């Protein structure tokens, strides 16, 4: 499979999160089943999910699992017990939800209070963290989630706060608690971006962001509002940089999110810019489709690519759910652009381009016209669509050219009144103006050229 | 220059190194620290005086009479001297080292005066007893202070103390004889200063006797005497030292005495050169003269070495002679350490032999050096477990020489006397050889570089020297392997950086070829000798023979994740990458910058534009390059030029322009200024005299030092052409577009000012002449281009001579790429310029006219429509573009004019305010000037289009 990204994405995921991906590949049947099973077994070897591993082993070979595995199982059980004993004091409180709720109501659910009244120490909390971590390794995500959320509430100073956040996100994702996961993600994002708290150096920040980007795919493509979220998050400068430097393959998800999202149309321009910039580093049918449509205006090519997109989407774990939406919206995009540059369009040709028969194409267009999304008329006899002619209005032109005058005059007036601030404000004006016209590549090329542009 | 070589050395010892260096090459006067030069002057002055006096005494018989006349003046001098000594004594009592230092200076000054007078009077050569007594006093006190170090001195005091210590040590060598005598006489230092007049005559006699004795001494006698002295040496800490150093200086004096005798006996006014020649010829005789025979005992060899070093750089000793002595000594070397150290000395003597005027060694010398270094390295490899190089031994605090020598005794009293043949480190049981191999290797590299700079590139000699690069690379590889083995990775990184600088500008084929050739050679060697284990362990060589998997961490380190994910690096690049990784890990910041630039250059050279660009952007060098040192800036310019060429080869007009713009912009955009001259200057490819800007001699010398050797030149003409072609393709469509839309010229974005300037000048010409140079050709092309004659434009461009500077195959492929671009941009230009004269344009017509496929025409025009460059829409059934035209009525056009005027008013107001603020005036002037030129261009362009179409268009304003 040419455009399968599992390999690249897997690099940046937690071990446990790769299982769903593998399951999906298994179901797709594009890879050898044995190979996938083997891979799965390898993965399980490094976790503590012994029973699962044993199952897979049976599937793989048909024999009973080796003895070491069973021995390890005992060890794991023993370790689990030891760890739970170590944090018994805090565990006792947490397990009793009424108690916790009561404490929370009294606003006493914090370390100081617990320390005073129940003798809970920081060591206990750290032990709780270890216990949660072990539970996670055993595949007991619900417990992990519960312990970690308590840990996060009680322990705010620890070095391991960040790790705990990651752990919670992972277990939420694996339990498919999308709302909670979304919340965790936002917390994580703030934690990574805030410089002081965890003192990450830029390289670490980059790494953490790369992880976050990959993990968030689970959330964004499953959460109802995820499609907006992905655009809002990934188009932030920091994340865009991360995508460009570390994982250009994420552009596929970004592109499809933009295309399927009808509310974030204005991001299209940004998207086209990035896709164009990174086309040397990464391309697949989806990004190529965007490029074809918005850079080359090659409608035939876009048509071909749309078909390729379908097959690609079908084999993508995250995007399979958005397939229909994607095709529909892509079609709309093609048509919209087509209409914008044409005055008269042949209906038959249009139908062919849209992959529809003539009747339904006509109906589709009529619907569009009726919903006032299209200024056009259908000439049924000649089977043509005639677009409304937009003449550039003088009024608009005048409004446009006088729009800035007021602000500029205001600035002038201010400058005259306060001669001290004069230099500052006038220089900001020039700078602002220059920035608007600058392409992003230019910005990266260094300051000297920028000066040239300003002057 | 040599100072550069030293500057790259260890920072900790650089200060002392430099001072030593100035002493060595005193004549260069490079940067002389005060101490040394004054010392030197004094010493040489003394020597001259001595010699003069001797000669004159032989001939002159009237000395007695004259002496009497001088007496009174002399007493005055002595009184002055005595007062200084008195002061010194006082200061010693309160141990005020700062004052002592100045007293010491005064003392020496006084002594100089004293001798000057002697020279005039053609007599005396004995130092005043007061002086000797003073320095002995000072020395004793110095030793005492050094012994009880725990008694803390203040910071300034310590500084002064150290200065005095070093200078005194040097100073006292001259007076060794007298000090010894003084001590033996048992006089109390600082006392009995007033009787020297009586002693005077007697001492002269003494001296004379001694010099006679010198003459009669056989060399073996010298040795035996010295050894005897050593046994006799008093046990008190301080004087032991004095005696040892004293001995050396004495015997070196003995040698110089003998030389003088010899030249005298020949009694011909021979030039030094012919004298040396005879020395060379009769090496056996010479060896006897130098007292060097192969059966010298171990300790004697050491001493001899020290002697030779002591004479080094002094006036009156020739370097060639030194070399000869060293070579003889090499045969006598008894153990490994000696051999290596002598070899080091030979190398450094070779370095010194480079003539000052040209600054590099002859090829023969250079090759000799290579041999020596190779020998040292081989020895080091063979006896890896026994020896190692030491640059700065912690227990040795001497004036560190660049290639120091073990025998150089430290002056500090706290240290125990070191055994004469071996230094034992407590942790490492290996013998230490002092010498910085990395620095030596770097110097070799620098020297070759200077040779390339200095030799005319059209001489066969240049080619000869080019062949040396291969030898050098082998040597460097060997050195690097050694340091890697020694785990001295910083030095390995330094050498790796040098290697990269020899590799980066070569295309992959050449690189791989070179490495393979070296591999074959080493294989051949391997058959004969078995000690070549290093050659196969060289990471580069082995990396190529047994291609290994690229390790992940390397690419992470490089910050180029694309490398690991998307494509495997090629062979030559891999070699470069390995070296680069070493530098990235262990090199200094400066080296890292050099290496990253080299890598970018190499990427660009190999047409990997995006890798190169990404690396450049991630290095963030472009932000700070102006602050870095000159060679780095030149490298940066070269890299940018190569990146631009790479973009040009890929057919990326905009990017080419961005990369080359700064390089190709002359400082003054006058008519006479040439882009080529500017380019040459920025790339350090030849010195350019600029009009109206005279360079000082110093400036020119500096510039000459940074010149790039001929074989590394970038094709300047080609770069200029690439820049102008790219500028044409970017600038002209934007120009015609602005014109078509009637945009105000100041609103238009300017891509290349230089191009605009040239174009304006070209269009201004009433009768354009046939093109002569690159610029003319492109201007002719541009004129054709504006008119929509893309074929003519292409013809002009294809006939530029600069294309011949690259090979034909790549030239045609690049031309093809640019032909496509010219077609596409030609279409755009045409539509911008003439769309207003059409109602509709058919795709077939356009595709025939521009030789583009209908689909491409469609896509290009669609793009223009979408970007609102063209008010038009497609008529799909007929395949035509319908141009929308819209003529405003009277009221509307008046309205438009009004708004235009309004915004102009605001513009003027803003400018007024700017002018008043003062800070912005410059910018305003600039803008005004630009506005003027731009409007002129608009008029010119309009005239052009009307001329061709015979129609007039209504200008809105």
TrEMBL record, chain A:
GO terms for cellular component: eukaryotic 43S preinitiation complex; eukaryotic 48S preinitiation complex; eukaryotic translation initiation factor 3 complex, eIF3e. Transmembrane segments: none annotated. GO terms for biological process: formation of cytoplasmic translation initiation complex. GO terms for molecular function: translation initiation factor activity. The keyword Cytoplasm applies. InterPro entries: eIF3e, eIF3e_N, PCI_dom, WH_DNA-bd_sf. The keyword Transcription regulation does not apply. It comes from the Eukaryota. It is found in: Cytoplasm. Residues 427-455 are annotated as: Disordered. Keywords: Cytoplasm, Initiation factor, Protein biosynthesis. Residues 432-445 have a biased composition (Basic and acidic residues). Pfam families: eIF3_N, PCI. Residues 219-392 form the PCI domain. Component of the eukaryotic translation initiation factor 3 (eIF-3) complex. Component of the eukaryotic translation initiation factor 3 (eIF-3) complex, which is involved in protein synthesis of a specialized repertoire of mRNAs and, together with other initiation factors, stimulates binding of mRNA and methionyl-tRNAi to the 40S ribosome. The eIF-3 complex specifically targets and initiates translation of a subset of mRNAs involved in cell proliferation. PANTHER family: EUKARYOTIC TRANSLATION INITIATION FACTOR 3 SUBUNIT E. Belongs to the eIF-3 subunit E family. This is Eukaryotic translation initiation factor 3 subunit E. It comes from Galdieria partita.
UniProtKB/TrEMBL annotation, chain B:
It comes from Galdieria partita. It comes from the Eukaryota. It is found in: Cytoplasm. This is Eukaryotic translation initiation factor 3 subunit C. Residues 192-229 have a biased composition (Acidic residues). The keyword Cytoplasm applies. Component of the eukaryotic translation initiation factor 3 (eIF-3) complex, which is involved in protein synthesis of a specialized repertoire of mRNAs and, together with other initiation factors, stimulates binding of mRNA and methionyl-tRNAi to the 40S ribosome. The eIF-3 complex specifically targets and initiates translation of a subset of mRNAs involved in cell proliferation. GO terms for cellular component: eukaryotic 43S preinitiation complex; eukaryotic 48S preinitiation complex; eukaryotic translation initiation factor 3 complex.
């Amino acid at each position: 499979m040419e455009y399968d990204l599992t390999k690249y994405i897997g690099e940046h995921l937690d071990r446990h999160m790769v299982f769903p991906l593998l399951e999906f590949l298994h179901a797709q049947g594009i890879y050898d089943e044995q190979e996938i099973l083997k891979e799965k077994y390898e993965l399980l070897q490094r976790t503590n999910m012994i029973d699962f591993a044993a199952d897979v082993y049976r599937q793989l070979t048909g024999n009973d699992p080796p003895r070491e595995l069973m021995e390890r199982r005992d060890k794991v059980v023993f370790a689990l017990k030891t760890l739970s004993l170590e944090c018994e004091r805090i565990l006792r409180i947490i397990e009793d939800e009424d108690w916790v709720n009561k404490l929370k109501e009294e606003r006493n659910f914090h370390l100081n209070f617990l320390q005073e009244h129940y003798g809970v120490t920081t060591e206990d909390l750290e032990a709780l963290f270890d216990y949660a971590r072990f539970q996670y390794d055993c595949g007991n995500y619900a417990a992990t989630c519960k312990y970690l959320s308590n840990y996060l509430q009680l322990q705010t100073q620890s070095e391991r706060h960040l790790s705990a956040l990651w752990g919670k996100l992972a277990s939420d994702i694996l339990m498919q608690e999308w709302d909670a996961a979304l919340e965790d993600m936002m917390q994580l994002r703030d934690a990574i971006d805030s410089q002081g708290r965890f003192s990450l150096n830029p390289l670490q920040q980059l790494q953490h962001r790369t992880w976050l980007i990959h993990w968030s795919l689970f959330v964004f493509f499953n959460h109802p509002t995820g499609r907006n979220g992905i655009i809002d998050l990934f188009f932030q400068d920091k994340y865009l940089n991360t995508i460009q430097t570390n994982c250009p393959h994420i552009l596929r998800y970004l592109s499809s999110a933009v295309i399927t999202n009808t509310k974030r149309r204005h991001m299209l321009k940004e998207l086209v810019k990035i896709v164009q910039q990174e086309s040397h580093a990464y391309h697949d049918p989806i990004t190529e489709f965007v490029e074809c449509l918005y850079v080359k205006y090659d409608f035939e090519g876009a048509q071909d690519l749309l078909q390729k997109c379908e097959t690609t989407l079908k084999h993508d774990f995250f995007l399979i759910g958005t397939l229909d939406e994607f095709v529909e919206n892509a079609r709309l995009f093609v048509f919209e652009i087509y209409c914008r540059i044409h005055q008269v369009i042949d209906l038959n040709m249009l139908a062919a381009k849209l992959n529809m028969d003539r009747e339904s194409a006509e109906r589709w267009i009529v619907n569009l016209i009726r919903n006032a999304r299209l200024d056009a008329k259908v000439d049924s006899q000649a089977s043509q669509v005639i677009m409304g002619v937009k003449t550039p209005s003088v009024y608009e032109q005048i409004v446009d050219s006088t729009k800035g005058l007021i602000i500029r005059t205001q600035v002038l007036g201010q400058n005259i009144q306060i001669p001290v601030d004069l230099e500052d404000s006038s220089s900001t004006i020039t700078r602002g103006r220059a920035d608007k016209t600058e392409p992003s590549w230019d910005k990266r090329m260094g300051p000297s050229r920028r000066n040239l542009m300003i002057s | 220059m040599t100072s550069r070589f030293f500057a790259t050395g260890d920072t900790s010892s650089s200060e002392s190194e430099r001072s030593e260096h100035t002493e060595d090459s005193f004549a260069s006067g490079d940067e002389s620290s005060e101490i040394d030069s004054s010392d030197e002057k004094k010493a040489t002055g003394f020597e001259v005086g001595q010699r003069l006096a001797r000669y004159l005494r032989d001939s002159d018989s009237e000395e007695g009479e004259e002496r009497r006349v001088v007496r009174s003046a002399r007493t005055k001098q002595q009184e002055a001297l005595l007062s200084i000594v008195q002061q010194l004594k006082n200061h010693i009592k309160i141990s005020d080292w700062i004052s002592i230092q100045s007293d010491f200076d005064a003392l020496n000054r006084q002594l100089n005066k004293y001798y000057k007078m002697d020279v005039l009077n053609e007599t005396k050569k004995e130092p005043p007893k007061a002086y000797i007594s003073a320095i002995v006093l000072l020395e004793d006190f110095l030793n005492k202070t050094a012994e009880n170090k725990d008694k803390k001195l203040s910071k300034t005091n310590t500084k002064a103390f150290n200065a005095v210590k070093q200078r005194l040590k040097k100073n006292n060598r001259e007076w060794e004889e007298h000090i010894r005598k003084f001590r033996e006489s048992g006089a109390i230092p600082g006392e009995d200063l007033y009787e020297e007049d009586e002693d005077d005559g007697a001492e002269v006699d003494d001296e004379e006797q001694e010099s006679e004795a010198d003459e009669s001494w056989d060399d073996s006698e010298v040795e035996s005497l010295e050894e005897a002295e050593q046994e006799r040496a008093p046990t008190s800490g301080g004087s032991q030292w004095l005696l040892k150093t004293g001995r050396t200086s004495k015997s070196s004096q003995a040698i110089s005495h003998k030389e003088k005798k010899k030249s005298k006996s020949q009694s011909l006014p021979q030039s030094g050169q012919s004298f040396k020649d005879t020395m060379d010829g009769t090496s056996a005789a010479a060896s006897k003269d130098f007292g060097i025979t192969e059966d010298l005992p171990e300790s004697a060899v050491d001493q001899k070495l020290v002697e030779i070093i002591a004479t080094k750089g002094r006036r009156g000793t020739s370097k060639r002679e030194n070399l000869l002595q060293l070579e003889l000594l090499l045969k006598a070397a008894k153990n490994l350490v000696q051999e290596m150290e002598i070899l080091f000395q030979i190398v450094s003597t070779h370095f010194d032999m480079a003539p000052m005027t040209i600054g590099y060694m002859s090829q023969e010398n250079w090759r000799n050096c290579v041999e020596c270094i190779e020998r040292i390295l081989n020895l080091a490899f063979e006896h890896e477990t026994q020896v190692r190089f030491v640059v700065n031994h912690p227990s040795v605090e001497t004036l560190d020489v660049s290639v120091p020598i073990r025998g150089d005794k430290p002056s500090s009293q706290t240290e125990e006397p070191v055994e004469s043949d071996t230094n034992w480190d407590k942790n490492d049981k290996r013998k230490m050889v002092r010498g910085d191999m990395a620095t030596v290797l770097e110097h070799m590299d620098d020297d070759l570089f200077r040779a390339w700079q200095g030799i005319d590139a059209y001489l066969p000699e240049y080619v000869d020297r080019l062949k040396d690069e291969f030898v050098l690379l082998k040597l460097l590889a060997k050195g690097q392997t050694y340091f890697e083995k020694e785990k001295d990775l910083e030095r390995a990184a330094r050498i790796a950086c040098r290697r990269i600088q020899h590799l980066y500008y070569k295309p992959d084929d050449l690189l791989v070829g070179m490495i393979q050739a070296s591999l074959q050679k080493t294989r051949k060697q391997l058959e004969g000798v078995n000690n070549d284990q290093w050659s196969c362990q060289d990471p580069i060589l082995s990396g190529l023979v047994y291609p290994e998997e690229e390790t992940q961490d390397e690419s992470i380190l490089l910050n180029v994740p694309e490398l690991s994910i998307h494509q495997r690096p090629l062979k030559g690049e891999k070699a470069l990458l390995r070296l680069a990784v070493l530098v990235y890990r262990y090199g200094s910041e400066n080296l890292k910058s050099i290496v990253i630039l080299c890598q970018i250059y190499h990427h660009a050279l190999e047409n990997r534009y995006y890798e190169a660009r990404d690396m450049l952007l991630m290095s963030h060098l472009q932000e700070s390059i102006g602050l870095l040192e000159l060679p780095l800036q030149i490298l940066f310019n070269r890299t940018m030029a190569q990146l631009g060429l790479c973009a040009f080869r890929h057919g990326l007009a905009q990017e080419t322009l961005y990369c080359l713009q700064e390089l190709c912009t002359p400082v003054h955009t006058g008519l006479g200024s040439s882009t080529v001259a500017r380019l040459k200057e920025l790339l350090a490819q030849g010195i350019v005299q600029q009009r109206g800007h005279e360079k000082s001699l110093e400036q020119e010398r500096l510039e000459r030092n940074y010149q790039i050797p001929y074989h590394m030149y970038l094709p300047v003409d080609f770069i200029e052409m690439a820049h102008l072609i790219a500028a044409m393709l970017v600038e002209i469509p934007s120009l015609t577009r602005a014109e078509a839309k009637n945009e105000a010229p100041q609103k238009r974005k300017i891509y290349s000012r230089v191009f605009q300037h040239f174009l304006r000048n070209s269009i201004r010409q009433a009768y354009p002449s046939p093109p002569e140079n690159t610029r003319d050709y492109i201007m002719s092309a541009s004129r054709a281009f504006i008119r929509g004659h893309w074929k003519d434009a292409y013809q002009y461009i294809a006939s530029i001579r600069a294309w011949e500077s690259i090979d034909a195959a790549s030239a045609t492929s690049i031309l093809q790429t640019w032909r496509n671009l010219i077609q596409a941009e030609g279409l755009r230009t045409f539509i911008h310029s003439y769309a207003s004269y059409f109602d509709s344009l058919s795709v077939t017509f356009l595709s025939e006219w521009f030789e583009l496929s209908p689909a491409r025409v469609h896509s290009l025009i669609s793009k223009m429509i979408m970007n609102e460059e063209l008010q038009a829409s497609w008529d799909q059934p007929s395949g035509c573009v319908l141009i929308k035209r819209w003529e405003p009525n009277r009221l509307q056009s008046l309205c438009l004019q009004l708004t235009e005027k309004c915004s102009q008013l605001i513009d003027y107001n803003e400018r007024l305010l700017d002018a008043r603020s003062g800070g912005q005036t410059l910018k305003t002037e600039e803008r005004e000037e630009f506005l003027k030129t731009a409007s002129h261009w608009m008029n010119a362009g309009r005239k052009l289009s009307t001329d061709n179409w015979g129609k007039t268009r209504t200008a809105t304003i």
